[in-house]
Each structure stands twice: as structure tokens, then as C-alpha cells.
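Example 3.2
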Amino acid sequence: MPSSWRGSVLLMPPPADRTPFSLSVTAVAADIDELGHVNNTVYLRWVQDVATAHWQAVARPEDIDRYVWVVSRHEIDYLRATLPGETVTLTTWVGTPKGARFDRHVEISDGTGKPKVRALTIWALIDRATGRAIRVPADVAAPFLR
């Protein structure tokens, strides 16, 4: 196991050639579980929400129309609780495409920058017309590799 691994999620800061994408969310009553903090399934939803927002914000319109991403794997480390009314920052960046797959890193942090959640997800690119996974074309990946 690489020395940069702790638990199950690789602690990889965004490389210099990747521009992180961020958005903020505030935990609402529906996000809170019986333990009084954000439920783990909500973190998973936030991971997907920031990934989707990144795609929508950066991808070319013709790529958004032609392709859809699906998750093939999530690894999540839950580090600190998020409480009701707390605002957190969701930050994501991509790894290097490998065939039809693209690794995506997500960090959810509090107002001081302390991480609450770290996730590594693997997404597969699907051609909407055929419903099949396809190799990530260089021109689709390019806007995310800056």
C-alpha cells in the first residue's frame, strides 16, 4: 500500500494541472440522522452532487448532451461529524482518465479547512446513444485537466 494511503482513501492534493471545483452546502434538518449529525448517505449524495456540478460547469455542451457518467466505485473516509446548520465546502478534482474510467477526488471540509470527509470515486463514461461505456476521449477530458 502506498505511503500516501491512510485508511482506504488516497490523500492526493489536486495536481498543478488540475483546477479544483468547489461549492458550499449547509446541512439541513433532512440531512441529520438519529445521532444528531449529517448521515453518511448524505455525504455520498454531496460527493455525487459536486461531481455532477463540476461536469455541468466545465464540460462542453455537446459533451453533456452526448455522454453521461455513472459511478462504478466509491471509497469514503468519514473523519469528522457535520452538525445541523453547519456549512461545508465540497471540493473535487479529477485524476487521470484510464480507458472509460476517470478517478475523482472529493474533500468535504469545514469553515477552517479541516477535512470532514475524503472520497475517491471511480466514474465510467457512457455514450447516451448506445448505453455503453466508452474510452474517455481526449477532448472530453481536456477541460478538466487544466
